[in-house]
Amino acid sequence: MWAGGHPVYMSEARGARVVDVDGNEYVDLCLGDTGAMAGHSPEPTMAALRDVAGITTMLPTADATRVGEELGRRFGLPYWQFSLTATDANRWILRMARHVTGRPRVLVFNWCYHGTVDETFVTLADGVVRSREGNVGPMVDPAETTRVAEFNDLASVEAALAAGDVACVLMEPALTNIGIVLPEEGFLAGVREACTQAGAVLVIDETHTLSAGPGGCTAAWGLEPDAVTLGKAIGGGVPIGAYGVRAELAERILSAEDADLEDTGGVGGTLAGNALSLAAARATLEQVLTDAAFARMSALRERFAAGVERSFAAHGAPWCVVSLGARAEYRFCPEPPRTGAESAAAGDRGLEEYLHLYLLNRGVLITPFHNMALMCPATTEDDVDRHSAAFDEALGELFG
Ligand SMILES: Cc1ncc(COP(=O)(O)O)c(C=O)c1O
Description:
Elements: E1 10-14, E2 17-20, E3 25-28, H1 43-49, H2 62-75, E4 79-83, H3 86-101, E5 105-109, E6 122-125, E7 128-131, E8 146-149, H4 154-161, E9 166-171, H5 187-198, E10 201-205, H6 216-220, E11 227-231, E12 241-245, H7 247-255, H8 275-288, H9 291-315, E13 320-324, E14 327-331, H10 340-345, H11 349-360, E15 364-365, E16 372-374, H12 381-399
Parallel strand pairs: 3-15, 5-8, 5-9, 9-10, 10-11
Antiparallel strand pairs: 1-2, 2-3, 4-12, 6-7, 11-12, 13-14, 14-16
Helix pairs in contact: 1-8, 2-8, 4-5, 9-12
């Protein structure tokens, strides 16, 4: 999906910089679509790997306990398990939610993305649930497994839960994968209440929204999910996923005696919770993605957004910028979109390609789909200013 017909081939990456095979250096604001929110090869993480690389025992390590405790402190959930991807964390919590509720369906939001989770490849077309365009070889039509609500439309959530057949609501607290869509006042509290009333498990996917702060939106906005899933960034470049659950949900899961949680019941994996992933996550959480780092990253994002807004004003661009902690995104519309559908309608592939290529040719990488930029602990003010200057030039050419 990189603009320009073929991707830049990378030869080196460190901190917030990437070097390609021709020796060109880029400021990396894509950061592996959040996989490198901790920066590339953060030193504390690299140091922690040396003693554990190459070990696969299927035994837990003390690092697993420390990471569970740290995630518990950040997200307010006491019990954690690990996978190798956020996709798998989502897949497994969906299975557990179906198992403990005895209900078949999942509720997601229009234009969501939660990894390659079968049930989530759906959109709404004129209010009807449809398999998402391009869905590769679905096992069953996802319209059979999934109900779809519109973000910021509580009535659509309540309607989708009304039949009482939804095991679980899986949502990002702000959509990030169709451009950033922030929740309106009261929406997330309304979803919480609707789940409680309907007996559905509320799973908040913080894989991207961790950008909001050390405990993601859950901590920043005081949310009360039954479960949180995440992955990518917390391994500092080493594959990991994680899901945490409230004590009551853990009890329900563990008391489901016919659930084979250890062997061939459909959750878990041979390398899940391996020593390398957990050593990386411990070092990354304790020493890299710290409270202080998030404060710096958020301040840099403010600088980024201010630069973008200055250019909008200077060139009369009728666009806006939407931010979430360390992450920001420019949108081709005057007001931030309120729903996934509005956000999808505000996309413009041609404009995106123009901007992405323009920036790439001036040494700045942003996420190849829509216009997301992320700060990491190694990002500097100069990096942000390099983007601001190139973006301003690009708008100058566009708007004359
Ligand atoms: C919100 C969200 N959840 C889960 C995932 C899946 O992550 P992974 O591809 O690492 O499994 C993604 C990937 O972009 C994501 O954006």
